[in-house]
Amino acid sequence: QKEVEQNSGPLSVPEGAIASLNCTYSDRGSQSFFWYRQYSGKSPELIMSIYSNGDKEDGRFTAQLNKASQYVSLLIRDSQPSDSATYLCAVRTGGFKTIFGAGTRLFVKA
Amino acid sequence: DVKVTQSSRYLVKRTGEKVFLECVQDMDHENMFWYRQDPGLGLRLIYFSYDVKMKEKGDIPEGYSVSREKKERFSLILESASTNQTSMYLCASTRPGVEAFFGQGTRLTVV
Questions:
Q1: CB-hemisphere CA count at 13 Å for A77?
Q2: d(CA A41, CA B99)
Q3: Structural contact between residues A48 and A35, judged by C-beta atoms closer than 8 angstroms
Q4: Between A34, A45, A97, which is nearest B45 by CB?
Q5: Sign of the alpha-carbon torsion through A74, B50, B19, B3
Q6: Cβ of B50 under 8 Å from any chain A Cβ?
Q7: Mind listing the pLDDT tens digit for each residue in B11-26?
Q8: What is the pLDDT of residues B36-92, one digit of tens each?
Q9: How far, in Å, CA of B14 to CA of B37, rounded?
């Protein structure tokens, strides 16, 4: 079992819809969870971090964490074509290591 | 504005060459990382360092070594480059409680 798993996609949604991205992780001791966006040919950039169970909202983005189910998700409301990218889920395990999922490709159709 | 700078954006090297990839950060972060990114495999951790002269193996350290002589600089060394090391290499830095900041990436081609 991979340490951080994501559906590779592609996930295709129409402009204005909600995009839902999911991630599961295997290390129950993980404390910090991140969502990065990566445009083709570019390096990842952080869009959300979450550390405790529940929802965290920032503009059009909402991160959700359920430690009991070892599940973290990212919702993008009012999706725009500029949101088309690969979204990487990252989990910081005990210590210093940050483990990344393989990423989910999102396409937002105009 | 935080900055992680990788020495090269693109590199082409020959099989068997010794290759140095340099990374410098200006945020006084303790922790620095080297990842490689391949299609369908995501980012895989090669090595990381949590202090000067300290290093830890990641998930795929074979064929690589690292050096951290100064806090701001973390170097990745390919001892004898092989074609299966053709990849995008990403350096990142962080400190406890802070997310990772990435450099712009180095696309290495070994021919």
A1: 7
A2: 21
A3: yes
A4: A97
A5: positive
A6: yes
A7: 999 999 999 999 999 9
A8: 999 878 889 999 999 999 999 998 999 999 999 999 999 999 999 999 999 999 999
A9: 20
